[in-house]
Amino acid sequence: MVTWLAMLIGGLYAAGFYLMLRRSLIKIILGLAIFAHGANLMILAAGNPRRVDVDVKIPIVPEGAEQLLQPYADPLPQALVLTAIVIGFGLQAFTLALAKSVYDRMGVDDVDAMRDPDLTEPPTRRDAQELVSHEELDSVAPAALPGTAVGS
Amino acid sequence: MFAILATLALAAFLAPSLTRWAGRRCGWILALAPGAALAYLVSRLPAVIDGETFDATVSWVPALDVSLDLRLDGLSMVFGLLITAMGVATMIYAAAYIGDDQRLGRLNATLLAFMLAMLGVVLADDVITLFVAWELTGITSYLLIGYDNHKFQARRAALQALLVTGLGGLVLLVGLTMLSWIAGTTQMSAMSAAAGSVQGSPLYGVVLAMVLVGAFTKSAQFPFHFWLPGAMAAPTPVSAFLHSATMVKAGVYLLARMQPVLGGTEAWHTTLGVVGATTMLLGAVMAFPQRDLKKILAYTTVSALGMLTMLIGIGTSAALVAAMAYVVVHALYKGPLFHVAGIIDHETGTRELSSLGGLRRTMPITAAIAAMAALSMAAVPPLLGAYAKQLVHAAEGEATAAAGYIYWTALATGIVTTSVAVMLAVLPFWRAGRETPKQPHEAPISLWLGAGLLATLALLLGPVAGTTFRPLVDAAARVAGASPSELHEETSLGLASTSHAAEPASAGALEGAADQAHADADHGAEHGEHGSGTLLKLVTIATGVLLVWRRDALLAAVAPVGGLARFGPEAVYRLSVIGLKSFSGVLTRFIQNGYLRSYIFVVLLATIVLAGYPLFSDRAPLPPLAVLDIRLYEGLIVMAMLMATLFATGTDSRLAAVVALGLIGIGVAINFMIMGGPDLAMTQLAIETLSVLLFVFILHRLPRFEHFTSLAERRRDLVLSLMVGAFFTSLVWGIATEGGESALSPYFAEHSLSEGKGHNVVNVILVDFRGLDTMGEITVLAVAALGVFGLMRLNLDKEKKNGKVA
To answer: ipTM beyond 0.90?
Structure first.
């Protein structure tokens, strides 16, 4: 059982980290979600996992018994993972809201482009045009000057 | 002894509020603290002169054999008297000089803290205690030099002093640690007994070099001298205190203290002799062209410190006596001169030598003090300076290492020092009057009292130096390693004739007591020199005065050489500071570059290399055979999940990615079921549904997927990610083969029903056994919910506002 669990975890980690290495904010969040799945499985995999109803029973004390009967699935990693799932969801909701807020304000999804200090306000269509024309002016002006001289 | 340290600490603590309460009079009150310390030291003076020592010990770090040992002996006494006496003068002077400045309270507190640290240095008997106090003087002096913290110049000078002396302090710590390891004790008073084993140790050279670097940086010896003139950015009271009598003398103190342990070797004589003599000459020569009174004083201080180092380097009994005498004399004239420079600055508004003149009429008292101090500096009888200079001349003749070098540098220094004394005491007061920014008038008594007392002391002690001053100096020199028998012989001769004419006799006696073979060789030469001593002195003074007279022409002639300063040690310091800054800038920008993905990249790579190596070197990365069982349905689920993962990673469609993510989540839930976690599976399914909904809601308002990175970057990331995946797969295999039951779970299994009153063990763990964890988790969720709410509200408001504007 651990054999395939391990391969699955490896696949989830690889995909999660690959996405987290992207520049797109939304892909980073996607990667985080996939990575969280991998991590949850990893915690269980570390706790001696066995097949239910074949090797072990679920960790619920049966009616009439005083305590769990051997063999039972380890309840401790399950409790930890349960917490992790819920926290992971909270994190996901927050990062998604954050990503949306950032996109609304900056109009970009590229985390590198967000470093541009001019992008603190969401550019309106007109702003964007002005931005482009300024950039063009800046880059064109020095080269254009001799050109105009020749032209005139 | 702890009481006087405690008094100063208390005074430093109370100083700010006391200053606020007493206003300008606070100086007189706060001077009581160093005054009390001074009184204590004076009360112990007769006993210390008789050779007694006073010890006080408090255990500090017994495990390391480090204790808070204090010891008052002759050497500590001389420096302690200087610190406390100058301290009294400084406290009175500082309050009057600074006036109604908001920051006076802070200055007073820092000054008192500095005094405390300085007394700690000279009273410490344990090397670690010494080092701690040593560093405290560095830190407090940083605060004092940088008092005018709104000025860039002051901040830079403070930092420079801190870096140079701090670096020296670190080197010193290593040296002292090695020394106490070799000597087998951290007590300096016990170390001299181990001098033989220290000097015979193969590490002697290293220890010596490190201790010397510590002392040289603190005492501004070449090539570390440059921080001292820079430190003149400090207010004058601070310069007068730190840079004439106390902090810069700490290095000299350390050398004297270490002389019995480390001294007496060829390396000691040569290094100290050459470095000291070079510093002495360099300081004097560089003082000459300065225009700022304080800068002139700073360079003459460098020169004096060089002389002290040189004398300790010569290391004979006479040289040590001369060094101790000169320590006192230097403080008695340099302190007043600094005060005078401050008074001139305070009353006229300038310290530029060229714009000062004729002040004797408006400031007669200050002029008199300056004259007394300068005469002592120029070693004119009957002042104390003359007596000390006599001892110094006698000692210089005893140099065994680099004797010729010392002779000529001393001669040149004497000439230039005379010139500088004239520049300081004659030009501002006695030449024709000049225009100054402020109308000059005599300073209030609180400004000149301290300087006046110190200068008068030098005048009064001069004629009776042999009987009053000498015993204390001898007591100090004995601690520094001078032999009692030589001192006794010399003192008795010195008592017979204390006038200036005693010089040849005294020198002759010294010679007789010195090493016989050496004395025989040099006897004739010495006598010849001393015969013409008076003539030489007159020539020295005449040349010095001539230099001042023709100063402008001389400076113009040597002006081109001044450009060489750009290649001096200060340039090395500046370049290394700049280099260090830009290096750390580059390093920081490289490591802390603000790109999340590069942090992740580094973390992953480090994990693979650092954790992967032991994992793979331990076992082959193959699944254990016992667990190589895959059932068909499991295989299908895993294949489906892996394909969904691949799809989510590679797709360009946002919706497809979300669907794939949902598939993965449901697959994980099935896995939970297989592993016997029904609660997990249910939670996972519920959460996954919410999560997909959330993604769908938000994702369609975000832009389409784009490729921002190049193909090469993606390939690199892909390779790294696959390596990470492989690493974690092997890790899980590794854990599985180790196996083992949880040590905690049986407890939960047993007590869940009986104590937690619940059948579902996972639930009982969450809400009962680890209830606080769950509480924290709920809090986290609440905070996240608030965050989401806030972010959404922000956008709503913004949209509304934009709507209105449009």
So the answer is: no
